[in-house]
Write a structure and sequence with these properties.
By secondary structure, the protein is α/β, with parallel strands linked by helices. The protein folds into two domains: 3-268, Alpha-Beta Complex (Spore Coat Polysaccharide Biosynthesis Protein SpsA, Chain A), CATH 3.90.550; 273-355, no CATH class. Helices cover 29% and strands 28% of the residues. The strands form four sheets. Strands 6-9-7-8-10 form a five-stranded mixed β-barrel. Strands 12-14-16-17 form a four-stranded mixed sheet, with no helix packed on it. The mean pLDDT is 95.
């Protein structure tokens, strides 16, 4: 597939509440240097280089974050930023982007990518996307990437793969039997033991006409409402009335022509502070420093620290902590409780939203 025939859609509308206090409403996770020197959204765009250029990349984001997209993707054409007046989950994002791509490049193929994942190596990722794009152009099926589970994680949706229906060199394509919402631990253990299930990475590839046809069949309310917008002044009213639903639920769980490509490269959705130890180099005591700041540790092991460039965090005699300094807020918690940051966010929403 030639580069000019393939588009990409980067979904950048999330709020990243599990990364409070660094991630705020005004500066969400995807616009932070959480997994390196560059922001996650900049890494996502760079990962596509050589396969999809910025002229053929759309970013769907909140209207409040357009300036951040412009700041961190300065070469992205302004008309390629789709600014949602309110968030309505991924089905609305996918539908709007597909309508826009079909208008600009009828009959093409595009990939849909979250803006806040870490994937290595980028070359292998591009190879898989290119193979999926070729398949999508040829078959008209809907393709998703599946992560081979390394543990019975309960924070991901799962995809059950069936028989192999196509095979590129080192890349197999399987029929999807079903999607499963986040399971409990016991069920996740059964999934992993079976060898048939994959984590749902939320990365999709399809022909634009195929996804529009699937939306027309399974989510006609969403597609019809968005297709009926003839002036930007109408978008806030229409968006406010849309139902909030993920594209997996609205379309993929119902469609019959869905395929999964199990991947072999390294993937992380960087779902909480605890995940940073998987995407950063560690010191001799297994401490992790992220965000550009430094860590000075004395008899301290397995800690995760986030601070801005020029800042120093000193640790003495502590173990397995998350320590985050951002603005006027500091977070300290055990690594095993990192997911519970959302409880702090919920309390701030009720009592002190100025810190959000």
């Amino acid at each position: 597939m030639h580069i000019r025939d393939l588009h990409a859609v980067i979904l950048a509308g999330g709020h990243g509440t599990r990364f409070w206090p660094a991630s705020r409403r005004a500066l969400p996770k995807q616009f932070l240097p959480i997994a390196g020197r560059r922001t996650l959204i900049a890494q996502t765009a760079a990962r596509l280089r050589g396969l999809v250029d910025l002229e053929h990349t759309l970013v769907v984001t909140s209207a409040d974050h357009v300036a951040l997209v412009e700041r961190f993707l300065p070469k992205l054409p302004r008309e390629n930023i789709l600014a949602e007046p309110v968030g309505r989950n991924t089905a609305a994002c996918v539908a709007w982007a597909a309508l826009e791509i079909e208008k600009r490049s009828p009959g093409g193929v595009h990939a849909v990518l979250p803006s806040d994942h870490v994937i290595e190596p980028a070359r292998e990722f591009r190879r898989v996307l290119a193979a999926a794009a070729d398949e999508a152009a040829e078959t008209g099926a809907l393709y998703t990437l599946g992560i081979r589970p390394t543990s019975p994680a309960t924070g991901y949706g799962y995809i059950e793969g069936g028989e192999v229906v196509s095979d590129h060199p080192g890349i197999e394509v399987r029929r999807v039997i079903k999607f499963v919402e986040k399971p409990d631990r016991a069920r996740a253990e059964v999934f992993v033991a079976s060898g048939r299930f994959f984590w749902n990475a939320g990365i999709f590839v399809w022909s634009t006409r195929a996804i529009l046809s699937a939306l027309r069949e399974h989510a006609p309310d969403l597609l019809g409402s968005l297709a009926g917008i003839h002036a930007e002044s109408e978008r806030p009213r229409v968006y406010a009335a849309l139902r909030s639903v993920a594209v997996d639920v609205a379309v993929l769980e119902k469609a019959q022509n869905v395929r999964v490509i199990p991947i072999a490269f390294t993937w992380s959705d960087v779902g909480s502070w605890a995940a940073l130890s998987d995407v950063h180099a560690l010191d001799a005591d297994q401490n992790c420093a992220a965000g550009g700041g430094r860590v000075l540790a004395h008899e301290a092991q397995r800690n995760i620290v986030y601070g801005k460039r020029g800042e120093l965090t000193a640790l003495v005699g502590v173990h397995d902590l998350v320590v985050v300094r951002a603005g006027k807020a500091v977070l300290v918690c055990p690594r095993e409780r990192a997911q519970d940051v959302k409880s702090i966010v919920a309390r701030l929403e009720q009592g002190d939203p100025s810190f959000l």
